[in-house]
Design a protein that fits this description.
Blueprint (H helix, E strand, L loop, with lengths): L3 E2 L6 H5 L29 E5 L2 E4 L4 E5 L8 H13 L6 E5 L4 H4 L14 H28 L6 E4 L2 E4 L4 E4 L4 H4 L27 H5 L15 E7 L6 E6 L1 H4 L4 E7 L2 E6 L2 H10 L1 E5 L8 H11 L5 E6 L2 H6 L3 E9 L11 E7 L2 E6 L4 H12 L6 E5 L13 H10 L6 E4 L2 H6 L2 E2 L3 E9 L5 E10 L2 H5 L25 E8 L6 E2 L6 H20 L3 H6 L6 H14 L13 E11 L3 E11 L5 E11 L6 H21 L4 E2 L2 E2 L17 E6 L12 H18 L16
Parallel strand pairs: 1-5, 4-5, 9-19, 17-18, 20-24, 22-23, 27-30
Antiparallel strand pairs: 2-3, 3-4, 6-7, 7-8, 9-12, 10-13, 11-12, 14-23, 15-21, 16-17, 16-19, 21-22, 25-26, 26-27, 28-29
Helix pairs in contact: 2-4, 11-12, 15-19, 18-19
Length: 725
């Protein structure tokens, strides 16, 4: 039975016996002894030719995956890459979380150990296959030496090495000790075809354990002597604790302590229920600080004012002004995108134990070494004295790439002498997020007499999360490439001008939300393309096709979407009084992924919209696991529909007005549309999938609403008030 395990269950020597090398490189393995605490005999019982796999003498193959599992299927797709080259079946492997170690497990694209940006399969594609191929070649060489034959007469198959002429066979476990003595080969050739696993559907390795409740998420961590704390932080960013009366809280059964730091208070108890009850009994006063007057209205007024500032130029071509002057029609539009929270199903949590000059952290994080560094700073310890035990992530969408909860948990844990688990309430999570920032987008386009776009100008105004997260990615003149990604879509125009005005707000924290740049630019560009198609009186799908480059991938995806969605055919009737419409969006991003969503909506007499059907066609290059791809597009679409219909974080008096799912809703099961995904395979390497489904669905829904009602929405969410209901 395949089961996920924590790296805490493994010998650290299995990971660290080899010297550090460049990110993504293979490590030289040496014979490793099992932990004596495990009751295993001493001796060379583990073959670890690189940082990503080990094979024990009993034949158990453990794959160490540095890309975390937060529902996207990496703990199946990444092992498929290793297992493919190692010639083993997925049922024969155990998957383990990688420890925090940039030297061994850094994402080779990003330079540190993180899971984001739809990068996992792109980053893993070659290194993980090479890890498996290297181990396979060493095992074959070991078997050949046992038999005294040429290695070319042997082949690996189903966890064993076979001597082809005689049919003799040795299992991998029996070759461990001999293989561990061999030099690690370099530049091992990889398969170019004839894949057994890659490209085939496969059930997720963690599905059974999740159904059985055996998977441990961060919130499930239990340690001997551990206490649980509920927390309350300043409701205004930059605020501080002024006064605290904890007398009532301390009388509640199970409450053990009340802790405070500059901007937060925690009630420590034997269990969560007592901690939360104690937290609710506190009498707290806050000094709100300089952001007490912040509001959403003030924010957008500030963005409007900043829109006339000097912009940093992005990609450009031709002469936009001259093109506009020659146009038969010009269209201008101002689009506005709200702040959006992540709202993962598992609220933020972190367990910390400070003891013996060390800090141990149990957490589900997208960025293990960033969490490690944050804990070290908060604990006042060198980073090598901090160990992070990663867990499964119960949703994240970018939220668990941040480490603010780690810092907070360590600051509280420094005040006690036992393990402490900090759990944020849903409200605390929603109101202290790193939000997908609010953006203002100004567009202007010209059309010639035939309806073709002659000029395109797009100015993006808003914050730059990338400046904080990865300063090296910002151009020397201040251009944030993420802020303007997809700002012209996959289209080709003779005259183009893209500009960016960075405008930060000190009153809220911006971050990454299942993508950032594409999530707002896709909505703006695809909605504006629909506006222009309506102005030109051309079918929206045909209008997009006439502005595409001569790229067969783009045309193939768009054509298949038209065919499979029934584009141009009559829609089924909605419920009594409903108007129905169909809308399309086309994006290309995340390394080259092309995705078309066709959404069907019904709008009732009150102006409430519901999405009834989505047809999606995706070309993400090389397909690893088609089941995972389809699930990613479906899940991303549901996430994006939630944002399109309900997603908006608003501020008043410096405070977030939303809290739980009653005020920040998500699409419920009875609201979820039927989503059909069609996959087109192209290319020799995979592109990104995790964020594409979310980025493209909002404009498809908004365009369908226009088709149903004739009302063009230049902002989200799609509310009855916006539709005049």
């Amino acid at each position: 039975m395949t089961k996920p395990v924590s790296h805490a269950d493994m010998s650290r020597r299995a990971f660290l016996a080899s010297g550090a090398a460049a990110a993504g490189a293979l490590m030289i393995g040496i014979p490793l002894a099992a932990d004596s605490a495990a009751g295993q005999p001493e001796g060379p019982v583990v073959f670890a030719p690189n940082a990503f796999l080990r094979i024990a003498r009993d034949g158990v193959v453990t794959l160490i995956v540095p890309y975390v599992e937060m529902g996207q299927g990496t703990y199946t797709s990444v092992p498929m890459l290793i297992a493919e080259e190692l010639e083993i079946d997925l049922d024969a492997v155990t998957v383990a979380h990688a420890p925090a170690n940039d030297a061994l497990y850094a994402n080779p694209i990003m330079g540190d150990q993180e899971t984001d940006g739809s990068l996992s399969m792109r980053a893993a594609w070659e290194p993980m296959r090479r890890a498996g191929a290297t181990a396979r070649q060493m095992l074959v060489a070991a078997a050949a030496s046992v038999w005294g034959v040429d290695a070319t007469s042997c082949r690996a198959n189903d966890g064993a090495v076979v001597h082809v002429p005689t049919g003799r066979k040795i299992g991998y476990g029996d070759l461990v000790e001999r293989a561990a003595t061999l030099p690690v080969p370099h530049d091992v050739p990889l398969k170019t075809g004839g894949f057994r696993l890659i490209g085939t559907p496969h059930r997720r390795l963690d599905s059974a354990a999740k159904v059985q409740g055996a998977v441990q998420y961060g919130i499930d961590v239990r340690l001997p002597g551990m206490k649980v704390a509920a927390v309350m932080a300043s409701p205004v960013l930059g605020g501080r604790l002024a006064t605290l009366d904890d007398s009532a809280a301390r009388t509640i059964g199970g409450v053990r302590n009340v802790l405070r730091i500059d901007d937060a208070v925690a009630v420590v108890a034997d269990h969560w229920a007592a901690a939360k009850k104690g937290l609710d009994a506190l009498v707290v006063a806050w000094d709100d600080g300089p952001n007490a007057g912040f509001s959403t209205t003030a924010l957008f007024a500030d963005l409007e004012m900043a829109a006339s500032d000097i912009a940093v130029p992005g990609p450009s071509a031709g002469d936009v002004a001259a093109g506009l002057a020659r146009s038969a029609h010009t269209v201008e539009a101002s689009y506005r995108l709200p702040m959006i929270a992540h709202a993962p199903m598992e609220p933020l949590n972190c367990t910390v134990h400070l003891h013996d000059g060390r800090c141990e952290v149990w957490i589900g994080t997208q960025a293990a070494t960033r969490a490690q560094a944050a804990a070290a700073t908060a604990a006042g310890l060198p980073v090598e004295k901090v160990e992070v035990y990663n867990q499964y992530l119960g949703g994240s969408f970018g939220r668990r790439a941040e480490s603010d909860n780690v810092t907070q948990a360590v600051l509280f844990a420094r005040q006690v002498d036992h393990p402490l688990k900090i759990v944020w309430s849903r409200e605390e999570d929603t109101q202290h997020d790193f939000y997908r920032p609010a953006y203002l987008n100004l567009l202007k386009a010209g059309l010639d007499a035939s309806g073709r776009i002659t000029s395109w100008a797009h100015r993006v105004v808003g914050p730059s999360p990338l400046t904080r997260w990865l300063p090296a990615a910002i151009r020397s003149d201040g251009l944030d490439p993420d802020a303007i990604t997809s700002a012209v879509g996959p289209y080709v125009f003779d005259n183009v001008r893209i500009e960016y005005v960075r405008r930060e707000s000190p009153a809220y924290r911006s971050g990454f939300w299942r993508g950032v740049g594409t999530t707002h630019n896709a909505f703006v560009v695809e909605s504006f393309m629909d506006e222009l198609a309506a102005t030109a009186r051309i079918d929206p799908l045909a209008f997009r096709r006439m502005h595409l480059a001569d790229d067969p991938r783009l045309h193939a995806v768009l054509d298949l979407a038209a065919e499979t969605s029934g584009w141009g055919t009559p829609l089924p009737d909605g419920r009594a009084g409903e108007r129905t419409g169909r809308g399309v969006s086309l994006i290309q991003d995340f390394g080259g992924t092309i995705l078309v969503h066709v959404a069907e909506v019904a709008v009732d007499q009150r102006g409430s919209a519901r999405v009834t059907k989505v047809t999606s066609v995706v070309d993400c290059g090389k397909v690893i696991n088609p089941d995972t791809i389809a699930a990613q597009i479906q899940g991303g679409a549901i996430f994006g529909i939630s944002a399109a219909l309900y997603g908006e974080i608003t501020f008043a008096g410096g405070r977030v007005e939303q809290g739980n799912f009653d005020s920040y809703p998500a699409v419920r099961m009875d609201e979820a549309p039927r989503i059909t995904v069609h996959i087109v395979e192209s290319g020799a390497a995979p592109f990104g999938v995790g964020e594409a489904g979310t980025s493209g669905i909002g404009p498809a829904v908004a365009n369908a609403v226009f088709a149903a009602t004739g009302k063009r929405l230049r902002h989200l969410p799609i509310t009855p008030e916006a539709l005049g209901g």
